[in-house]
Amino acid sequence: MQAKEIKIYTDSQLVASQVLGEYQAKNDNLSEYITLVKEKITKFDSAE
Fold this sequence. Notes:
The chain is mainly α. It is built from 2 helices and 2 strands; from the N terminus they run βααβ. The longest helix has 14 residues. The protein starts with a strand and ends with a strand. The model has no long low-confidence stretch (mean pLDDT 92).
């Protein structure tokens, strides 16, 4: 059984905006993590 939906919580508006593509990550290491998160989110039917 796999999850089809995910609900993500963060206390960082900056990180949330970076994941949503509203802001660009300036740090290369952080940019790699943001890319990884974006790839993982696409595996779900729904993400909020």
